[in-house]
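Hi everyone,

Forwarding the result from last night's run.
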Amino acid sequence: MMDAARLRTQIQVHEGCSLKPYADSVGVLTIGYGRNLNEGISDDEAEVMLSNDITKAVLTAHRVVGSVTFEGLSDERQEVLVNMAFNLGETRMKKFVHMLAALTVEDYERVAAEMLDSKWARQVGARAQQLSEIMRKGAH
């Protein structure tokens, strides 16, 4: 019977691992242990990636907003900020200086207005409209 652990180790050694996409020896876009990105990913893989990315976005929102402020928000407002962190990343989210200042004084009308008065809102359109409304009301 095949030894799955031995096979896994062999493939890991032979393929090597790249955490960033690269063109392999024949020009195929590849990542991880020889995964051909031209073939795409499965639904299950997309769900695992999404779960990992949401976890990262929660941590990003905590860092950007501050844990005390973040934890004091309603679940819905926390979700808005995590959604923004997911989409923007830490560096771009930190640029929402006026929005973050309004959060610290619980001025949610201003937070919502600052969300909409941004390049991000113009880029994502309906997403920003929906999230700003949730932020303003504190509920879906």
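The chain is about 65% helix and 10% strand.

Cheers,
N.
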